[in-house]
Amino acid sequence: MSMRFKTTSPSAVSSQSLPNSKISDTISISSTTSAFSTGPDRHGFYGGTHFSDKPKVPLSKAQIIAREKKWLHMLEHWSDYMNHNYKKIRERCRKGIPSAVRPKAWFYLSGGHSLLEAHPNVYQELLDQSGDPQIIDEIKRDQHRQFPMHEMFLDEDRPGQKELFNLLKAYSILNPQTGYCQAQAPIAAFLLMHLPAEQAFWSFVSISDKYLKDYFTPGMEMLQRDAKLFMALLKRTSPQAHRHLVKSKVEPLMFMTDWFLCALTRTLKWDTLLRVWDCFLCEGIKVVFKVSLVIVGATLSSHKVRKSNKDLCDVLSLLRAPKEEIIEEEFIMQNIMRLNITVQDFIVEHKKIEMQMRKQQVQNLM
């Protein structure tokens, strides 16, 4: 089941300098440059690795209108499609959701729409509460770090930081068992870029409690289990990359923690991230697995790369900052669709890991 990765030509991301900014020097992990453009790109970024002055290659006007009409029809008959024609929704998500309908589509796909209908006025009621003082302090310390080069989050006076604080505070009150985890902040900020605050909140609730269920609990046992699952799947899809990680003593949690906890929001190029989230909100966490498998497999596919990067630190450097061509939209989307793993593979490997972990728990008690 070893996989060869189909390549696409890399594209350069450039930026220009802009003086005088209130951007904090504590930048998110995906921002590696202090250069700014004189204006935002088409996604609202003034700089950082998410910035791109490359225009999106457009579909024809007729294609865009046709896709939008199909999505609007699906959204008007959402329950029927979800109950009787889910494969059509999945097919259209994989093709990419038109940008004009993406916010509404994400709101429905995530389950946020159903939650808001079931709990009207609850978001405002949560905002009216004071919250845990310790959690409030933690959120305030983190809110300026999320996408600081995006126009919504440039400084504390922008609406983005205020809405981000409110959303995270409200969730910590709604779900005090989880409270607040730093990795939740980029997901919340990402949703706020696309949805009104109340819709973003309920979408966030669904993602945290369903898509990333138990990821943010103390001990992160679910993430540890999924790290084992990731290695089992990597052995199937990219055995050479798997062997290299084992030889280099690289544990998956050393590089995949940020990918999974933040649902790739701090890892991918922006156009890639949008397309991946179209699929993630439709198909769930297995999409994050697939993208991660492609990144690791493609990064370590070359014998020359493996030979020149044998040490743990060298391998981690490669994986924590993947080459631009590997995280390009077309490369990622083509290769996750070609990835030779099935739902049954996930189930089989998951059962094996569950058995192993139960045996280990029994041994620990002896």
Layout of secondary structure:
Elements: H1 61-76, H2 78-84, H3 86-95, H4 102-109, H5 112-118, H6 122-127, H7 133-142, H8 159-174, H9 184-192, H10 197-211, H11 221-237, H12 239-247, H13 253-261, H14 270-283, H15 286-299, H16 303-308, H17 312-320, H18 329-338, H19 343-365
What do these coordinates show?
- 59% of the residues lie in helices and 0% in strands.
- The protein is mainly α.
- It is globular, with a radius of gyration of 21 Å.
- It starts with 60 loop residues before the first helix and ends with a helix.
- Mean pLDDT is 89; it is low at 8-34.
What is the terminal separation in angstroms?
A: 39 Å
Q: What is the 3D shape?
A: globular
Structural class estimated from helices and strands: mainly alpha
| Average pLDDT taken over every residue | 89
Report the oligomer: single chain
Low-confidence stretches: 8-34
The percentage of residues in β strands lies in: under 5%
The rounded Rg comes to: 21 Å
| Helix coverage percent | 55-70%
Give the tally of β-strands: 0
